[in-house]
Amino acid sequence: MKKKPIILITGYLGSGKTTLMQKLLEKEQRRIALIVNDMGSINIDAAILGKEGKCKNVIEVEMVEMQNGCICCTLRDEFIAQIERISNEPDIEAIFVEASGISEPSAIAGSFLAYQEDNPDTNVYLSSIVSVVDTDRIYREFLGELTDEEEREEDDIVNLVIDQIEFCNMIVLNKTDLLTNEQLDEVKKVLRDYQTKAPMIAAVHGGIDTSLIMHGREFNYDEVLDSSAIQRALEANDPEEAASCVDEYGISSFAFEERRPFNREKFEQFAGNYPKELIRTKGYIWFSDDEEHIQLFEQAGRNCALTQLNEWMASYPQDELEAMFEAFPELKDDWDEKYGDRINQLVVIGKGFEKAEIVRMLEECLETAV
Predict the structure, then answer these.
(1) CA–CA gap between residue 333 and residue 46 (Å, rounded)
(2) Which one, out of 113, 173, 264, 329, has a CA that is 20 to 30 A from the CA of 218?
(3) Cβ 138 vs Cβ 146: under 8 Å
(4) Tell me: the pLDDT tens digits for 341-362?
C-alpha cells in the first residue's frame, strides 16, 4: 500500500487556517481525510467547513473532529489513534490536519516521530508542516515583542507564536493585502530571525498553489531543527510531562450557545468595541432581520468580520425539508420546534477575561421580542 502524506496546518488563533484548508480542498481531486482540532467545546472550524459546502471537488472527505483540548498535549493519544486508524483505510489518499490555534507544532511532530519509531511499517508519513501567519496581526500586535527578547516573559503568548513560526517547512504569509509592501518586508525580516530556511508564500484569503504543499516529500526533522533559531522542538515529547496549552499560556475558552437571534444593530455595536481580553472568537450566528442566512462571525485581535453563508435548513420549502429528513433522519436530533436548525454558536478564546461578563454582553445583544 502506498504511504499517505500528512499535511499539518498550524498557526495562531485567527491566522486563516480554516480558509487555507478550504482553498486546498477546493482544488484537490484526491480522497482526503480531514482532522480538525479546536480547543472549544464546539468544533466551530469543522462546522464551518461543512456549512460553507465549498469542497465539492474533493472525491471524498472523511472529517474527524477533535475538541476540548489540543493535539499537541491533552488530545495527543487520541490524535495518534485517529492517524493509525485512517492509515489503514485503503480509499484515503492523504490526510490534512488543522491544528488548534494554540497547538505547538514541535510537540505534534515529536508525537508523530515517536509513533513512526514504534511503527516503522506505518502507511503514513509526515510531509508538510505549514505555518499560517496573520501578517497584519504580527505587524500590529507582536512585532515589538518579537524584536525585544528582554521584555518577553516565559508565559507570553508571543512564545507560542514563535514556536509556530520556527517549527515548519513552509510559511504562508496570509492577509498580505492589509499591509503596505514596506510593512510586509518588515514582517518578513523579523520572521527570518526565527525561521531561516522555510519558504514564505504570500497569500490573500489563504489562496496558494496546492502543489507547494502536496509535493510528496517526507518532512525533514533535522533540516527544520537546523532552520530554527531557538531549536526547542522535540526535546519534550514525553506524554507524561505534557502540560495543557491552556495552563501554560493562560489562554482559556468557552462556548456560547443560544437559539434566539441577535439584534443586528446591538451585535454590530458590540463587535465595534470588542473586549481587548478576547484573542479569538469564531462561529456562526443569525439575526432577527434575516431568518434565511447563516452568518459567520470571526474576530482575531483588532479585526472583526461578518460573512453571509448559505441558508439555514429551516428556511427551505416544506417539501425539500421533508425530503432531507427522510434521507437524513439524524437531522431531527438537533431540531428546535420553534427555530429549527437556527442557532448562535460561538467559541470565545481569550486571556484574563471574566466569562460571566462576556456572556452578559452577548446576551444583551439578543433580540428580546421573538
Answers:
(1) 19
(2) 173
(3) yes
(4) 999 998 888 888 899 999 999 9
